[in-house]
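Predict the 3D structure for this chain.
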Amino acid sequence: MLNAAAGLFATQGPEATSTRQIAAAAGVNRGLLHRHFGSKDQLVAAVVADGAQRFARELEGSAADDLSSLVDASFAAGDSARETVQVLVRAILDGVDIDTEVIRTGLVERAATQMQQGAGGDSDTDPLLAAALLVASLLGWQLFAPVLLDALDLPADRERAEREMSHMARELARRSAP
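Done. Predicted structure below.
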């Protein structure tokens, strides 16, 4: 049910997706959706939470012990992360109240921790703000890469994009260091 809802929410948005459509895509009775999740907003929250938890598990399984490795692991998450980001953005645009604690897990928490560990007392860079900017860049890339590459007449070179994002992460970490 969560996978069917995630796919529909990512492509249509929660507002435009009916529980009938979700039930049909999942091959279940609509009443089962309501019994398990309550309202459609609760189902959206469950889809976002499930996606965030899967992404956090993928990061835990990686050797993401510095920011560059964290960026690499984020790119490696690929399509599942993209779908979760799409659902999250569409839910926010549709006015669904999203629990930010769910979003904090995984990438956000790890980037913030790594930025804080590298932060120096005399740095002008706020490590939490730097982490937020890094995560925003990664999330934005998940959504806008095809459009940006096309608009700038750049080839869809994933490895090059990963190298550039890793370079940005190292620079943020360096600026946060003592």
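The CA atoms of residues 90 and 97 lie 12 Å apart.
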